[in-house]
Amino acid sequence: MPANSKLMPAFLAYEALGEGESDLMDALRGQLEEVLAKGTILTPADLFAKARYLQHTARIDPGLISMEAVDTLVVGIALLCGNALSQPAVMPAAA
After folding, report:
1. What pLDDT digit, counting tens, does each position of 45-88 carry?
2. What pTM was computed for the model?
3. Which of 77, 95, 89, 87 is nearest to 40 (CA)?
4. Crossing angle for the helix pair 23-38 and 67-81, nearest 10 degrees?
5. Is 46 left (phi over 0), alpha (psi -120 to 50) or beta?
6. Which long-range CB contacts under 8 A does 66-73 form with residues at least 24 apart?
7. CA-CA distance, 79 to 81, in Å (whole number)?
């Protein structure tokens, strides 16, 4: 049985916050950003959610994209697509 997406609900909540400016919204946005950047990809929905988060972040400021977010994206693609890749994926070293 496939695992349930954990990143898609976080992305939908992040997207729903919009551009509002309050201390509470900033705190919520920060928590969701951490989940989206560090979260493990287990399902295609997780992969899509992380990609959309990175796309959104890049539009704001590409410098805000953390290497951890990119690394977990690569690992998630390797996990989901493994044998379909034309070359082995390079897995980042554990921090």
Report:
1. 999 999 999 998 888 888 888 888 888 888 888 888 877 666 65
2. 0.73
3. 77
4. 50
5. alpha
6. 66/37, 68/37, 68/38, 69/36, 69/37, 69/38, 72/37, 72/38, 72/39, 72/40, 72/41, 73/41, 73/47
7. 6
**Tokens 């695992």, residue?**
3
- Taken in order 62, 66, 71, 74, the sign of the CA dihedral is negative
Q: What span, in angstroms and rounded, lies between the C-alpha atoms of 66 and 32?
A: 14
Helices (H), 4-60: 7-17, 23-38, 44-60
d(CA 72, CA 36): 10
